[in-house]
Structure formats: C-alpha cells, structure tokens
Amino acid sequence: QVQLVESGGGLVEAGGSLRLACAASGFTFSSFFMSWHRHAPGKERELVAGIDRSGNTNYADFVKGRFTISRDNAKNTVYLQMNSLKPEDTAVYYCARGVVMDYWGQGTQVTVSS
Known about the structure:
Layout: E1 3-7, E2 10-13, E3 18-25, E4 34-39, E5 46-51, E6 57-59, E7 67-72, E8 77-82, E9 91-97, E10 103-104, E11 108-113
C-alpha cells in the first residue's frame, strides 16, 4: 500500500536550518509529482513546494530563496531543505503524492523559536 513517512522535524532557533525527508513506498515514486505542505494552528494548510518527475520545482513566495525541494528516486525520497528559518515557519509539514495529492504522510512538526 502507499505510504509516505516524513522525518526531520524539530525545534530550531530563528535563522537555523532543518532538512525534512519523506520516504515513499508502495508505488513507482519516480513517476509522480511530489509536494510539501504545511499547516500552522489557526491557519489554512498551504503549499510550500513541489517537484515533478523531471526535477522541475516550484515554490510558494514565502519560501523562495530559503527552502529547496529535491528528490532522490533511487531512495524513493523527497527532501525539503529549510534555511533561514523564521518563527512564522512553525507548522506541521506534510508531503503529498501527485498533483491530485491523493496520499499524505502523517506530518512532522517544525518549531522555530524567536
């Protein structure tokens, strides 16, 4: 069955970095667009970044220049490198499969202290 498992979240000071990973299984990972989203308390869930099968990427304006999405098809894993973190980046981060986002991981908490 399809599984997406995020890891790498934690507590970091403002200006710090974290690298999130989403390990995929149960499907042909290399064939799918993958994306990262986040959900902060009291806010709507929002798209952070996406990467297609060819490695083309897109980012939300609020993370451009700070976050980088990448994928390793040999490891069935998509990554989110987060630099220059801000307190407003605090959220649960999720990965999702496909442009239709039909499967989601359980999320990983990222907390940025000021």
